[in-house]
Amino acid sequence: MVGSRMVGPILSYYPYNPYYSNPPVVIEQQPSTYIQQAPQDETQSYWYFCKNPEGYYPYVKKCPKGWLKVIPPQTPEDVKE
Fold first, then answer.
1. By the 8 A CB rule, do 57 and 48 touch?
2. Would you call 43 helix, strand, or coil by DSSP?
3. Span 3-18, average pLDDT
4. CA-based angle 13:17:19, to the nearest 5?
5. Residue 52 contacts residue 64 (beta carbons within 8 Å)
6. Which residues, 6 or more positions from 45, have their beta carbon under 8 angstroms from its beta carbon?
7. Which of 55, 75, 73 is nearest to 65 (CA)?
8. In this structure, are residues 51 and 65 in contact, taking their beta carbons and an 8 Å threshold?
9. What's the pLDDT band for 11 if we cut at 50, 70, 90?
10. CA distance 57 to 28
11. Structure letter (DSSP) for residue 48
12. From CA 8, how far away is CA 81, in angstroms rounded?
């Protein structure tokens, strides 16, 4: 190299300057808690009484004036001490 001066290194490539994106947002969801409630069956909770003819369903099949919904008496199994 006659008559040339070298001032610095000659780069034959461009410096790598990658684009950094934000890291992905990760949200961990807590598992759902399901509380199963006891079934509420109305036919098991009430008895049906007819005044004329007097009696309870299913012993009386038809009640012309309409059924009365009554709470059945407690049995020893239902009573909790």
1. yes
2. helix
3. 64
4. 145
5. yes
6. 71
7. 55
8. yes
9. low
10. 55
11. E
12. 97
